[in-house]
Structures are given as C-alpha cells and as structure tokens.
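Annotators were shown the component list below and the corresponding predicted structure, then asked to write short factual statements about the assembly.
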Amino acid sequence: VRSRDTSKRLAGKRVIFVFAGEILGGAERGALDLALPLARVEGAHVEIVALDDRPGRARAIAEAEGIPWSSVPTPWTGNRLARTLALLRVAAALRRLKPDVLLAHTNLPNVVCGLIWRLTGAKLSVWNQWDVLGTRRFSPGLFRRALRASPLVITEAVHARDWLAEEWGADPARVHVIRGDVQLSPPREGRDAWRERLGLRESDFAACMLAHFHAGKDHRTLLHAWRRVVDQLGEGGPNPVLLLAGRPAGSENSVKALAFDLDLRDHVRFLGDVDDVTGLLTAVELAVLSSRSELFPRGATEPMSAGLPVVGTDVPGIREAVGDVGVPFSAPPGDDETLATAVVTFARDSALRARIGAANAELMKERQSADVTRKQYATLLATVLAGPGGDYSPAAGKSVPR
Amino acid sequence: VSALAGRRVVFVVAGEVLGGAERNAISLAVRFTRVEGAEVTIVALDDRPGRARALAEAEGISWTSVRTPWVGGRPARLLSLLRVARSLRRLRPDVLLPWTNLANVVCGLTWRATGARLCIWNQCDVLGTKRFSPRLFRRALHASPVAVTTAFHARDWLADEWGFDRRQVHVIRSEVTLPAPLDGGQDWRARLEIGPGDLVACMIGHLHEGKDHDMLLRAWRLVVDAVRLEGKHAVLLLAGRPAGNEDAVKGLAFDLDLRSHVRFLDDVADISGLLEAVDLAVFSSRSECLGRGATEPMYAGLAVVGTDVPGIREALGEHGREFLAAPGDERAFADAILRLARDPGLRAGVGKANAELIRTRQGSEATSGAYARLVADGLTGRLRDAPEQFPAGATAVSLVR
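Structure shown to annotators:
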C-alpha cells in the first residue's frame, strides 16, 4: 500500500509492522486498524512481517486490505546460539525491506526488534506494549535490555506506562500513551438473524464476552456469576443467555467442564472465533469482560463503541477502559457475587442499559476516534524521524494526561 | 509347605496411585503372604499419596517409599538408581517383582546389585514409553531374566517390538475378585438419583488419554436419543480419577448436552456396589493389556460393550466379541449397547457367561497360584520356557507346571 502524496506526514516512509504471527488477537487487530490509515492517509509504505507462519485470520484481513505480508519464522527455541542466529535471520529479512520505521507489536516482536533494529537500517523502532503480564519466554534481563534499546515505546493505557516504568525501569519520558482506534466494521447480519441462528427468543436477555480462551481471562468467575444470574432471574425474569466468543487458546476445556458442572447448558453458548463481531454486538443487551489482567481491552471498548453497557472485573485496564461511567458496574477480581449483581441490575432495567450504553458510545467517540489515533501516531513518528539524529521530543510523552 | 514360605518377595510399584497394575500387584502380594507364607514388602518409587498404600496396609502388607523421580541429567538418574538399589538391598530380597514401566526399568537395571536371585518384569500395558529412551527400555528388559504379562498380544508385543525372547515371557492372567459391596445397588441408584426404569451403564477407567471417553460419549448421545423414543432415560456413570483428560471429557459432555445423562463419579472405592447398580458395563479405550475395566464387570456378571482393541478382545473372550466396536465407530458401539439394553435376557445370559469365564480363567489358582509356582521355579533354577500357544480351555497352571 503506497501513497505518492508528499504533503502527508509519512509520505514515502517505509513502515514495517512486526507481528508475532497470523493469529488475530486484540493487539493484531489494533495494529491493523493503524496500518491502513498510516498508508492511505499519511502516505506511508506499509508492510507486515510476522515471526510465525502458522495460518490465522490476521493475514487474510491484511491482504484483503492490500497490505503486503511476509513471514520469517522465529520460534525462539534452542540454545543461545540458535536464538542469536534467529535474530540475525530476522535482521537480514527486515533489512531487505529497507525500513524507515519498525513498529513491533507484542512481546516477541518487541524484544526481537529492540535487540536488532539498528542492524536493519531503520531510523526508528517502536516498542508497542500490549499487556501488563510480563514475560516467561524471555529472561527479565533480556526483556529489560530490549526495552531500553528501543527508542520509543507506545502503549494504550496510562497504567501500562506506569507498569513499564516501575516494573521494567523504562524512562517514562519515552513511553507515549496513545489510545487505539476502535473501528467496528458494518454487521454482516443484523440482530434478528443472529438471534434466530442462536435460538434466542426476543424476551431472552443475552450478554456476550469477547475474549479468547486463555489463562489470562477469567471465564471461571464469569460462569459462577452466570449461575447466580440464572438463579436470581428465576422463573419470572428474562431467560439469561451468555454468549462466549473467542478462539480456543488453552482454557476452553476447563471452562466448558465448569459450565457442565454448573448445569449451564441452556444458558451458555460457546461461539468460537467470531468474524462478525459487530453483528453479534447488535444481538445482545450487555457485554461482560471478566479478566485477570488487561491493558486497554477491546473486549470492553468494542462493545462500548457499539453502545452497549459493560460489566467487568475491576482491574486497572478495564477500569481505565470503561471510565467513570462504567466503574460502578465492575466487580473485584474473583467476586462472582458482585459480578452477578451488576448483570442482574442491567437485566432488570432496560432504561439503565440504554443510558449507560449511550454514555459509553459517546465516550468512545470522544476518546478513540480513528482520526485522533492516526494523527497522534503519525505526528509522533514524523517528529522523531525529522529530529536530529533520530531523537524525539520527550514532551510527546504527555499524549494522554494522567 | 509352599516353596515360597519364608522367602522375601519385594513388589516394586511406581507410586501410591491405584490403577489396574497396582491392584493386580496388591492382589498377588496378599496371596503370597497368606497362602504361600512369603515375607512380602511393597516398595513405591514415589510417595505422593494414593489409595494403593491404604489398600495394601489394610491387608497387612508393609509399604515403604524410595523417591525416584527420574528427572535431571544422567548423573542424577544414576544416583537415583544407586539409592533404589541400596534401599532394596537392605530388604535382602529373594525376588523382585516390579510393575509398570518405571519400576520395571529401574529393577531391570539394578536387580543384580540388590542381592535378589530373581527379578520378574511385569508388563502391564502395550504403550511403550516416552519417559525412557527405547534403548534404555530395551536394555533393562533384556537384563531381566523373565517377564510376565497378562495377555498374549502383550507377549507378542514384547517379542516383536522389543526383541525379547518370547520363551521368557509367561502369560499369567491377573486374578480378579471383588470385595463385598459397601452399599447395595439400590442404595447406589438412590444416591445417584437414578430412576428404577432407567438404563444405567458404567465405565471404570481413569480419565486419561489412553482411554477413549470421547468416543463413548458420542455413542452415549446416540443411545440417549434412541431410548428416549422408547420412553426410557439413560444414565452413564464414569468412575475414575481425573488424570489429565477430565476437562476435555466434561467439555464434550457439555457440547453433547449430556448433563442429565452422564455422571462423573471420580475414584470409586466401592466398585462392587457400583457394579450392582448398573445394567451393563462399557469400556472404551485406545489400548489395553487385559483391562480390569472389562474383567471386573465380567466377574460381577455384567455384559460388557468394548472397543475392539487386542486387550479388550482378549479380555472378553469368544462370546463377548459380538459386543465389540471398532475404534472410533460410535454408531457400532451404540448399537451394541442398545442391543443389550433392549434384551434383558441377552444381558443376563452374556453376564452369566462372563462371570463363568472370569472364574475359570482368572480364579486364584489359575493366576496367583501359577505366578507363585513360576517364582518358585525361578528361585530353584527350574524355570521353563513359556509355552508357545495357550490352548483353549487350558489354564496357566497346567502350562507353567
């Protein structure tokens, strides 16, 4: 994807996004949402390099948008020599693309690019921090070294900036907080079609959680809460149905086993990976996000964009995402009783749902529009690239006030 | 007076968790103590708690542990072997009887250093090993003077896959007896809230990947749908401890909407009571030596539907073969269950024949008695070659003697 308009901030610049692989998670979706406007609006030449070539939906989405995609399998296994050779292989592959900027997303690309970016000929490498979990794959020393070697760090949440500074010794002046754009594509199917396919009656109260099934999410607390919701709404209330959208990523069997034990077959549906997230969101009355740790989760912000109220776990990333309006509907981690109470409150009060949903949509428009994200990102990159010796303005670190 | 009277016989097991192999070993240990007058000790290579130790100690068999995690580099493992050898030597064994892979390999490698005069490798599965290199497994096996297994297909496997001389592999069936039930069948059904007219089946098998609960649940879905049309309710009881596959099995039960048709009972102490409560047994597995999940229900007079793998085929015998289904064929498995479910007379007839077969084939003399004679022969240097064939109707007693 290339633009020849030289009036644009990144006109002619070669921007290489580096992904861990082709699997589409929140980080990859966020990066893809950024890649396109950087090319089409800001005039950059954008390509994506993945460090794993196992098939996933991210590649298909990128290629459908005309963004070139290549892979350099970098399994990060074996001894130090094998890993050093892998690093050199990635560096050579990136160098061939003649990058001006490397934009690494998630831990493996961040560490790899942090360590080798100077060998690639790039003028700038940007570490994009997408979680606050730390790493087991790399030693803390290597993670810290790669982070410090990266001239610019971008993250979506203020609490993540603090975490990088406090836990990993990153210079806060180099860590910029830029909210990601949240774009929802038009629904492929509307509410009626979705509900019919899921066998939902109009009177049913449907909620969904958008999250892959891995240990970082807390589906277990949600299921315990949902059992309470079912019991509390009882015979007279609406029939509650929980829709769990996400690909299997390690914890799916234990979640289903718990759903079996809690006798939730009539009240929980496992949807797998859902393409038509927008359509799904039109079909539900509420979104829930039960998690152990989040940075700035799309599992909250996408439903908010769609005008839904969100009930979530009170962890820093969800608290920051739902804002002041949503915090009263959060539950402490592991507290299924409070989580259930919040869900039941929304189930019984359609006016409240409408009011909080509208406030959420408004917040999202103000806070995370495509234009704002793209402009902040492009301005930051252009400023750094234009600076003497590739330096940048620390003032930009105040992109989002604390 | 038994030739084993006063002999020190040391059973070596992998740990305290009670599986089919440990049950076989304890059953034999009791026989050696009470009937043969041997001095029996069980040594476990792991001390994490399980039901096997309690069961043995309740029978008056002494139990000790020598932790042998078999981890770390070669020096660490070598030290482990030396520690085991020294511990065994202190017991001044005449015979070592290891059961399951870890115990077999450890004893195969160390038995000459323990002072024992005989070591018998007891092959309890036909899975091979990932824990040891094939070379080490083969070396330990070939260092063992004699092997015993409970099934002919397992003898062939030891010979064909591992190059062990089949004349040194004796096939001696495991003894199958069941204690009196703690609770009667009616009590069990009441506790499980099973209606008097419900069709009830059980599978006895720990929830690990070697068993094929996946196929069983798919078959059970077909059974549930079929008997519902006949106005009946079907309930499957799964008895076995969680062993790595329990979430996947429950997850599939959720997907198949089997919540009111499948009960997960965990590890069941009162197997006899459970078997009294059911109409038939099922045994779905990917690989078996001579599965107790089949032979115990047979002993209890139940018909058994099983997967057609060598160990279950051999366990069920000629008359049980019509109730076998090819691996992965849930339709055939369900059909076999339905055939028995719809015909109480057939169930009773097959169950009776099963009970007779087990009592003939796997009674005390034909099994533990034969084993005792093999050990006695080994200690007196009169060990004979194992017979090439196992003629129909013959018992291990007649062949070993």
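Statements collected:
1. Chain B touches chain A at residues 246-251, 253-255, 257, 259 (CB under 8 Å).
2. The two ends of chain B are 17 Å apart (CA to CA).
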